[in-house]
Amino acid sequence: MVQIQIPVTQSAGNYLLLCVYLVDPVMRFRRQRGYKLEIPWWQYLLLAFADVQGNFLVVCAYKYTSISSVMLLDCFTIPVVMLLSSVFLRAKYTRSHFVAVLFCLVGISVLVISDVIRDEELASWDVSALYGDFLCLLGSAVYACSNVGQEYLVKKENRRMEFLGLVGLFGFLISSMQAVYFEGDLVRAADWTWPSALCLLGYILTLFVMYTSTSIFLTTGDAAVFNLSLLTSDFFAVVAAKFLFNEDLTGLYFIGFSLIIVGVSVYNRSTPSTCTDIQDDSTDLLLP
């Protein structure tokens, strides 16, 4: 089966679907005289740019490392979200939360080691896997910025539809320009079949549902809990890696997975007390 590698084009379809949420702010603008965006448009542009690049980096990581590693390394978003939430949203975390993050980080480290040393007998260094791990970690950090920004906008400003619509609009423009420049020839040269087209459509629809659900969750929850909850998808990643992609999972993988599960369990023992308490003056901290 010929692989079609178009990470930016994949995301562009999702952002195009998100533009449907522009109907709400447009109707408000037509009905309410003096209606204006609560957040300047250029700040939505920054969040859309971060979101596009986060998706791009994580999808690119699949080219170099295993699906199971990408799914687990994705949890690097959690400590980054906690750091950004503490600085910009003034969330307060207990000692148990930081212990939980420590377990997750140790689990990530073990996972990276398991990717670097693929062949235990020869102890050969897989540089491409290390590069894929780096892309995933970088993408997770960038995506965390988008998560925290989204939490602020949908919770403090109560502009969920506005956020989705404008991020969809700017995200589509940014990803389309990148897709034309970097992937235009690949899209035209690709041998499109029904299975590949359905896979692309499934990816776009799934991402659209995820973005919509995330915005609903963040109206009451917080970005850290959201990203921790996403770790439950690791179980399905393991099943897919083993039975669909025939990946060999080493002992180090299960050690890293166990450490991450312990970290999630410790974190869920308590919830940050100020996650729903976003201060009025936090706008200046969140975005320049």
UniProtKB/TrEMBL annotation:
Domain of life: Eukaryota
One Pfam family named in its UniProt record: SLC35F
Regions crossing the membrane: 41-64, 70-91, 98-117, 129-149, 161-182, 194-212, 224-245, 251-268
GO MF annotation list: transmembrane transporter activity
Subcellular localization(s) per the UniProt record: Membrane
Keyword Transmembrane set for record: yes
Membership in a protein family: Belongs to the SLC35F solute transporter family.
Annotated Gene Ontology cellular component terms: membrane
UniProt keywords, alphabetically: Membrane, Transmembrane, Transmembrane helix, Transport
Protein name listed in UniProt: EamA domain-containing protein
Coiled-coil segments on the chain, per record: none
Organism per entry: Phytophthora ramorum (Sudden oak death agent)
Lineage: Eukaryota, Sar, Stramenopiles, Oomycota, Peronosporomycetes
Main location class: membrane
Membrane disposition: Multi-pass membrane protein
